[in-house]
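Subject — a protein and its fold
Encoding — discrete vocabulary of local shapes:
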Amino acid sequence: DRVSTQSTGVVDHRLMGNSIITCCAPRDRAKPPPSLSDPTAAEEEAAAPELRGLTVKWLMTGLKDDIEAAGMDMTATVYQIEDPVIIAKGADMVCTTDNLLGCSYLDAVSLQDPKAAAPATLYVSYSWGYMCKEIVCTLETYCTRRNTSTSRVSAWLSCLCLNQHRVHTAKKRDEPYDEFKQFESRMFRARNVLGILSPWNRPATLDRAWCLLELWTCFSHPADLNLKLMLPPDQSKHLQNLVKNTPQSGFRQVWQLLG
């Protein structure tokens, strides 16, 4: 179950419970992954707003409440909650970064519940086409598998942590949004990167140039970035049932995907 890639590293593919995890580590420079429960580097620069994330605990509860208050449920995609939840949350609040009306969902939440925001310890790579439950349930599983409290893992998701009001303004003016240029620095600050793969046989993230750039960055810096690729629980269950009930065709599909 281990395949060497030249002499610089090892790619280890495992089918583990409800996730497929790919770990990359260099042979000569390998070091223990950074600790989620002790985000020292991030805490040293906690004053910088761009380094903050939302705790998984909040995403499991507070985000769910906000989505339901907007008349939807967790099966809604990120695209669907953008205006009624993400944009609406901070529409009447002043952004602490530029002192203009309209702040990020993260800033609005931190004013409502200061404990919900903390230095980011996990950078999440995902698609806006994913259902919210896919993202949140995968994050919950991630914490469980690392035996880490959901209140101790702060996730950085662009949709919630960037000021989408400014993103919209930049689009209307046909101007680039400068914050996008800083994604790499955020990854290196968090050091832990979670790539969510859904559906299992054709992950949407692998069709997005931005997500491919995030993965390329991780593969290019294996000693500095700890990457985990995971399936949402429902996708994992579907894959497991496929392999269990029709092993011959199931494994054929898996090998075709990995090939």
Strands lie at 2-5, 9-16, 19-26, 52-55, 117-119, 122-125, 154-156, 192-196, 226-230. DSSP finds eleven helices and nine strands in the chain.
